[in-house]
Design a protein that fits this description.
Elements (H helix, E strand, L loop, with lengths): L14 H5 L8 E8 L7 H15 L5 E5 L5 E5 L8 E3 L8 H16 L10 E6 L8 E8 L5 H11 L1 E2 L20 H27 L20 E9 H11 L3 H20 L9 E7 L9 H4 L12 E7 L18 H4 L7 H16 L1 H13 L3 E6 L6 E3 L2 E11 L5 E8 L2 E9 L5 H22 L2
Parallel strand pairs: 4-5, 9-11, 11-14
Antiparallel strand pairs: 1-6, 1-13, 2-3, 5-6, 7-12, 8-15, 9-10, 12-13, 14-15
Helix pairs in contact: 5-11, 6-7, 6-12, 7-12, 10-11
């Protein structure tokens, strides 16, 4: 869409927003909200809710991307017909929750592969008014990554939704469980480890875009069109208190424990599908928020010119090599000590901020499309994507509908499998989304759950 000649100068799409809305990469976030009660929001009430809360949050929810007179992509405010953005799933009537669970999964897979219309603001809300195994109803927010990253969108949810127990009180976030105390010797060790890891990570990042790719395996087909295909998903829930207990026993962080379970579960899945893939070189690409914050700021704070938590896409990525499976670390092993090697696969690295700066420099020298191609190559050369968000401690409600669970997925990424993690009401919800027909997400889920049990067992043994 071209900008009319008589239009005033429009705000530009951010560089990171361009990377995720280019000919190389187009990413969409699917946020799923599970309701406690059946969804019975009258159409006019939902329109009023979206108009009052969502459209007023940020101009990008009422803007489209146009090409400016200078050839740059920019945001243009347009009139929004909210009814065009509200979709209602239609399934056969009078069926069981098990039946509707299958319908819901097929529906989620279907909309994951559908492109958002470029002629209207890049978001939709889907209502699934049928009971599934986990919820009385489901609300799906489908939002293009160009509008904002997970941090921005979680901040939007916190601004739109209310506490179920007391709407007059703000939603709060869990205390940071990732800080691990250490003495001077450990601090020096961390500095040395950071220097070595930074050099290693920068080299791995460079090589993954030039000449190195992960081996083909049960989780990596190498097909360049994978980002255009539908995904299928499965989710699992872990107690945040239990994870914190494990991290205290091991002197690690919450992220170390849960990503360790994902890494070990990945290897267990690969072994189950093809034992010959145990030695495959496999890398996870971890997307990280580069804002130096431990909590979400208000939307009012995020849209200010000078703020440390701006709206938009502020991310970098880190390559993490997934440890290889040993003969003693299997789903039926009585000796699970090797499981802790997957938890210890954490990195003390400065590559995250440096990678973001180098990507910015690359864009300055080569242009936005070339930088988007670079991001695509970084993603395509790896086997899986991992990203996470912090959610509220208290139960939320949307238009008087209590939300019993939340999780999110990303579609359009050129990897066959992704894992997303979000905390909510004292639990971590881990989602596995995989290319439909290539990876069985339920088997993958079972392997991650087995991995968590092995790590929990090892942590108890190590603490005694």
């Amino acid at each position: 869409m071209m900008e009319p000649q008589n239009e005033p100068q429009l705000p530009p799409v951010s560089p990171n927003g361009l990377y995720f809305n280019s000919s190389a990469v187009s990413l969409v976030i699917l946020a799923v909200l599970e309701t406690e009660q059946p969804i019975k929001i009258p159409p006019h009430q939902l329109v009023s809710f979206l108009d009052t809360y969502l459209l007023s949050l940020h101009p990008r929810f009422s803007s489209v991307i146009v090409t400016g007179r200078d050839g740059e992509k920019r945001w243009k405010r347009v009139g929004v017909n909210l009814k065009d953005h509200i979709k209602t799933a239609v399934f056969p009537q009078g069926k069981s929750p098990e039946y509707y669970e299958g319908c819901f999964n097929d529906y989620l897979s279907e909309i994951s592969a559908e492109q958002l219309p470029e002629t209207q603001p890049l978001w939709e809300i889907h209502l699934v008014k049928y009971p599934t195994l986990n919820a009385a109803g489901n609300v799906i927010f489908k939002i293009h990554h160009a509008i904002g990253d997970g941090y921005s969108l979680m901040a939007a949810l916190l601004s739109c939704f209310k506490r179920s127990d007391d709407p007059s009180l703000p939603l709060t976030l869990p205390n940071d469980g990732n800080v691990v105390g250490a003495g001077k010797r450990a601090a020096v060790s961390r500095v040395l480890a950071a220097v070595l890891s930074t050099a290693s990570d920068l080299w791995l990042n460079f090589s993954k875009t030039r000449f190195l790719e992960d081996d083909l395996s049960p989780i990596r087909s190498g097909d360049p069109t994978v980002g255009l295909r539908p995904i299928s998903a499965a989710t699992m829930t872990f107690s945040l208190d239990e994870i914190k207990q494990i991290k205290s026993q091991l002197g690690m962080t919450v992220n170390d424990v849960i990503t360790g379970a994902v890494f070990l579960g990945t290897r267990l899945y690969m072994h189950a599908v093809d034992p010959g893939s145990d030695g495959a070189d496999t890398t996870a690409l971890v997307l990280l928020n580069t804002r130096m914050l431990r909590s979400y700021n208000s939307i009012e704070e995020m849209v200010k010119q000078e703020t440390n938590s701006p709206w938009g896409n502020h991310f970098s990525f880190l390559h993490v090599t997934i440890p290889k499976l040993t003969t003693s670390t299997t789903a039926t092993s009585n000796d699970s000590d090797d499981a802790l090697e997957f938890v210890r696969a954490k990195r003390h690295s400065l590559a995250v901020p440096l990678t973001a700066k180098l990507l910015h420099l690359y864009r300055k020298l080569k242009g936005s499309e070339a930088a988007a191609g670079y991001v695509y190559r970084v993603m395509k050369s790896t086997s899986m994507l991992i990203t996470n968000m912090i959610g509220p401690v208290e139960k939320m409600s949307m238009a008087d509908h209590h939300i019993k669970g939340i999780y999110f997925l990303v579609s359009g990424n050129p990897q066959n499998v992704q894992t997303t993690i979000v905390s909510y009401m004292g639990e971590l919800r881990v989602s596995v989304a995989a290319e439909k027909g290539f990876i069985d997400p339920n088997t993958f889920k079972s392997c991650v759950e087995t991995a968590f049990r092995l790590i929990r067992k090892s942590a108890c043994t190590a603490s005694h």
